[in-house]
Amino acid sequence: MQRASPASFREAASRFATGVTVLTALDEHGRVCGMTANSFVTVSLSPPTVLVSVKPGRVHRAISATGRYCVNVLPDHGRELSRHFASQPNTGATPDCEIVDGLPRLQGCLAYFACEVIQYVDVSDHTLIIAEVSTCDHRDTTPLVFFSSRYHRGAGVPVER
Ligand SMILES: Cc1cc2nc3c(=O)[nH]c(=O)nc-3n(C[C@H](O)[C@H](O)[C@H](O)COP(=O)(O)OP(=O)(O)OC[C@H]3O[C@@H](n4cnc5c(N)ncnc54)[C@H](O)[C@@H]3O)c2cc1C
Questions:
Q1: What is the count of structural domains for the chain?
Q2: How many angstroms is it from 153 CA to the middle of ligand 1?
Q3: If pLDDT is split at 50, 70 and 90, which confidence band does 118 have?
Q4: Residues in CB range of 102: below 8 A, 6 or more apart
């Protein structure tokens, strides 16, 4: 089978605009950890099911140990949070978060999803982590968007229906 080159794949994939989330979890010592992720996908409405694609690291270990994670959707002013949680290694102080029902929730997010893992699927160097959503909430404000390898503010201009 022919394979797209990594460079052209990366360039083409970057044209798929996404929101930006931070996955948070408690590690095996009960410490908060988090990572920036734009692979968040809603899989089904009933039961409410989502997936994220996570590469090995501290957050992967924390989720595997506890079977739980929280998806925090970043608002338009969340660029620094995104950078913080994409750092390697992410050792800085954890930004403001509260523990709700045993899961860390970042303050000021657009939406959150508390997730209970139902399946792990290893694909090359990532794991698809599929989960049911136990609780979620949202507020009406504008999102942070990742497009063409850059951050953008807002939801764009609505197209007429
Ligand atoms: C906009 C944006 C979107 C992103 N979306 C995603 C996403 O959807 N999924 C995703 O996985 N990442 C994504 N990243 C990258 C991710 O945020 C960073 O890699 C982050 O540092 C991971 O945090 P961590 O604490 O889990 O990893 P750390 O423990 O800090 O490890 C850092 C990196 O070291 C490597 N590493 C660590 N331990 C191992 C091990 N045992 N075996 C092999 N390699 C290892 C991995 O590459 C790992 O990501 C995104 C980054 C950005 C900016």
A1: 1
A2: 24
A3: very high
A4: 26, 68
Instruction: Please write the tens of the pLDDT for every residue from 131-153.
Output: 999 999 999 999 999 999 999 99
Structure tokens at 149: 């390898």
Instruction: Give per-residue pLDDT as tens, 1-53.
Output: 999 999 999 999 999 999 999 999 999 899 999 999 999 999 999 999 999 99
Is residue 159 situated within a structural domain? no
Residue 83 has pLDDT above 80, yes or no: yes
Query: Which structural domain range is residue 72 located in?
Result: 18-153
Per-residue buried b or exposed e for 1-23, using 16+ beta carbons within 10 Å of the residue's own CB: eeeeeeeeeeeeeeeeebbbbbb
63 lines ligand 1 (CB under 6 A): no
| Closest atom of ligand 1 relative to the 20 alpha carbon | 1
The answer to whether position 98 is within a domain reads: yes
- Give the atom of ligand 1 at the shortest distance from the alpha carbon of 86: 17
The answer to the question of residue 132 being in a domain is yes
Round the CA-based radius of gyration of the chain to a whole number and report it.
16
**CATH code where residue 43 lies:** 2.30.110.10
